Amino acid sequence: MRRAVRIAGFTLVWLGLFLFGFVGYQLWVTDLLNDRVQAEAREQLVADLVDRRAELAAPIVVTTPPAPVDDADAGREPEEEPVVLRPEPL
Fold it and tell me: Model pTM?
């Protein structure tokens, strides 16, 4: 009986150490391994976004005709800014 309890105790201790090591591997080692992969993926994403931005057409600037100017409005800046239209993405 004593021997069976001792074997069960050692088995549970080793199983606990194994599980602790496995959890440590999952949390830290895989994080270190994936850090490099994520950095490469980020560089690729940035490069793709730069390429896509270069493919966009130049924005079209639409201006509205100025309103008639009174003498009281002389020298004032216009209240409205030009409207900029961009082509919709495909």
Answer: 0.41
